[in-house]
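FORM 12-B: Structure-to-Sequence Request
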């Protein structure tokens, strides 16, 4: 969803280390694009003047289901993304793959400045359906402590956001902003979450992942019915502030905070580290981050600014530098990551050239001048240097306003950003003044900690309804011209706080180029725009200039696309692509529907031939269905059955639950007589796996499903219907 690229460059003597990183959406102007990042790769290569992929020494990628470069998600619908990977002109021998959570961990640890740390990764899902991981880093290396799959809080938060609040994918930040408005109402959601170490099991609230595959693309009716569908759904975005939905937002936010505190305490107990690094999509929940940190014994915290999947490319590249065997013999430099300005800087001549091209007048201004303009109540677009990495604007691609003016919040939400009025704005504050205004005793350079405000009346436009704010601390060392601006605003007004929000319109990516900034500025009711040191006022012929800008930008993106295809993915053919997609989708349907049955029947035949004693652990309805649909199942030598916690896979189908098998307990599985364990559940497969691993029994286990299969119940049970 949030593809992109990063490139790390270093000298072999360990004296130099630098990097560039960008998200694909910034370059193609489409939020959450689900596309192979050829624009981002080209951007990084241009940044370092590379002319061929042969000049790249190593390519690091994550994998989502199967550890392979092509069709890592074999049960998903094949798309142009997959075909472009097939045509990508890189030496396959240079491609290394690591887990999604390891990439998250690398991004947050190697940028932390810590020598050692505990690492907490919490997201929707990653490699092999991972949702939560505990890790520890020391001596420059990161290792897993424990991990949990398929039923995590990140997926719960996303599904409440999309399926109950109706806010759409990628809108979890809206839920966080809405949550405080629901505190006054009675609870409406019951999660039934079971917390045990790294395990955060929400099987009582929603079905396990995956919740999407190739069958959904064939017919939307094929999407698995989820338990969460039993709750009311908001039918229009304007109704989301009604009591029921506001409280639903509060409920899921409160549950997330409970989970994060639990995970933080468990991680500290496992590591005893004074430092904690956090990443994954849930780490964007700046409210929960602060509550977790305050409730644990960690003394310092580091959260990567692009902690969602947008930051995976940087994590991959920096992992390669510190861990790839190709560079193991080289001395390593410690990374200096004090700010998130990872993009390419646009020269002053580029800015003035764009202004001249479209006949837009400008004049030179200083940060002192802009501070005075803000103090007069103007809203200013602020475009400086290299763009920030991640979803937060941190003073290089920002829309700025006067923190002292209460009306500024609604004006920017409605007239500038065209978004919901319940969404708050962030205060950018000088670090030395932060303790005076906020209950925060650590730096927060990336807006990823929310703190209570001590002086809400002084800065009302940046304080949320619950008296909190998502704080950005600003320093001269890290924030250059933006620091000068906030300092000048303090000198002029006595208040060291400026309203800072991302430079984009609702539903659009943050601006990247001077042209993007001009388009966003002219489409909104911003008063002024600052590009570098050039102040732009609103011109008279806005419609004409906008039309020209949009036409030229669209043409430039398309021309760039064709150039990149020829350069990075030569031999692209629509006919070949369509044939490849058709073939792969046929295989994907088989993988999702029948692979599990085919593999199990092969395994059953082997057990029968070898007279292998088999124990089963699982659910009653799933086990009885195996008896009916798996050839040879009734000939197995089944020694005993462990009824896993009395669970049922699909209670609403009323399937037969009389297994006819002799019951046994876990001790039977631990005996030498137990040679094979058949895990007979889809819904609780990963919970059973977790239980078996705790008892050191995983080596005996046969799992019917991989991480992309549909349940045999979905495919073959009476009362279910799939179309393909």
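FORM 12-B RESPONSE
SEQUENCE OUT:
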């Amino acid at each position: 969803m949030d593809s992109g690229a990063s490139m790390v460059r270093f000298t072999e003597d360990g004296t130099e280390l630098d990097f560039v990183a960008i998200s694909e959406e910034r370059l193609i102007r489409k939020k959450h694009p689900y596309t192979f990042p050829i624009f981002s790769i080209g951007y990084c290569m241009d940044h370092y003047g590379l002319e061929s992929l042969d000049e790249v020494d190593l390519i690091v990628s994550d994998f989502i289901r199967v550890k392979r470069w092509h069709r890592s998600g074999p049960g998903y619908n094949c798309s142009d993304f997959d075909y472009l990977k097939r045509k990508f002109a890189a030496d396959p021998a240079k491609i290394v793959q690591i887990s999604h959570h390891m990439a998250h961990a690398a991004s947050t640890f190697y940028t932390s400045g810590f020598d050692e740390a505990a690492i907490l990764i919490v997201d929707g899902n990653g490699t092999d359906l991972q949702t939560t991981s505990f890790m520890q880093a020391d001596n420059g290396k990161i290792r897993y402590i424990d991990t949990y799959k398929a039923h995590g809080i990140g997926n719960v938060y996303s599904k409440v956001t999309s399926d109950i609040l109706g806010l759409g994918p990628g809108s979890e930040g809206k839920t966080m902003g809405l949550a405080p408005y629901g505190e006054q109402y009675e609870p409406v959601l019951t999660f039934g979450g079971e917390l045990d170490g790294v395990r955060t099991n929400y099987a009582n609230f929603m079905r396990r992942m995956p919740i999407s595959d190739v069958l959904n693309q064939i017919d939307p009716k094929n999407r698995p019915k989820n338990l969460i569908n039993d709750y009311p759904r908001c039918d229009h975005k304007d109704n989301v502030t009604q009591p029921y939905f506001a409280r639903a937002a509060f409920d899921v936010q409160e549950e997330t905070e409970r989970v994060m505190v639990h995970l933080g305490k468990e991680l500290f107990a496992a590591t005893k580290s004074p430092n904690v690094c956090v990443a994954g999509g849930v780490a964007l929940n700046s409210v929960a981050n602060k509550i977790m940190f305050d409730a644990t014994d960690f003394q310092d915290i580091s959260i990567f600014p692009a902690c969602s999947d947008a930051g995976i490319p940087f994590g991959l590249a920096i992992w390669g530098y510190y861990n790839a065997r190709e560079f193991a013999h080289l001395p390593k430099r410690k990374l200096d990551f004090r700010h998130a300005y990872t993009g390419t800087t646009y020269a002053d001549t580029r800015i003035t050239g764009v202004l001249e091209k479209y006949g837009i007048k400008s004049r030179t201004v200083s940060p002192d001048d802009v501070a005075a303009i803000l103090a007069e109540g103007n809203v200013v677009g602020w475009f400086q240097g290299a763009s920030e990495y991640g979803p937060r604007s941190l003073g290089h691609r920002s829309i700025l306003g006067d923190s002292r003016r209460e009306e500024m919040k609604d004006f920017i939400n409605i007239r500038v950003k065209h978004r919901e009025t319940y969404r708050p704005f962030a205060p950018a504050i000088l670090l030395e003044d932060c303790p005076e205004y906020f209950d925060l005793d650590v730096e927060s350079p990336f807006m990823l900690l929310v703190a209570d405000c001590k002086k809400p009346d002084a800065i009302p436009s940046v304080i949320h309804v619950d008296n909190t704010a998502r704080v950005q601390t600003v320093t001269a060392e890290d924030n250059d011209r933006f620091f000068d601006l906030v300092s000048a605003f303090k000198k002029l007004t006595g208040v060291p706080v400026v309203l800072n929000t991302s430079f984009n319109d609702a539903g659009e990516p943050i601006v990247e180029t001077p042209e993007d900034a001009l388009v966003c500025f002219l489409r909104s009711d911003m008063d002024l725009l600052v590009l570098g040191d050039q102040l732009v006022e609103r011109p008279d012929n806005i419609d004409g200039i906008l039309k020209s800008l949009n036409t030229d930008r669209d043409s430039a993106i398309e021309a760039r696309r064709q150039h990149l295809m020829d350069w990075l993915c030569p031999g692209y053919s629509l006919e070949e692509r369509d044939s490849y997609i058709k073939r792969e989708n046929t295989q994907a349907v088989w993988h999702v529907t029948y692979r599990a049955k085919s593999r199990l029947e092969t395994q059953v035949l082997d057990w029968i031939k070898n007279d292998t004693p088999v124990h089963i652990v699982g659910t009653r309805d799933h086990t009885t269905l195996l008896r009916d649909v798996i050839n040879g199942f009734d000939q197995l030598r089944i020694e005993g059955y462990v009824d896993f916690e009395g669970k049922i896979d699909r209670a609403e189908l009323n399937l037969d639950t009389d297994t006819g098998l002799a019951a046994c307990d876990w001790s039977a599985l631990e005996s030498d007589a137990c040679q094979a364990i058949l895990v007979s559940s889809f819904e609780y497969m990963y919970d059973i796996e977790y239980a078996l691993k705790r008892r050191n029994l995983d080596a005996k286990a046969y799992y019917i499903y991989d991480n992309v299969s549909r349940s045999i119940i979905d495919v073959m049970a009476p009362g279910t219907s799939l179309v393909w």
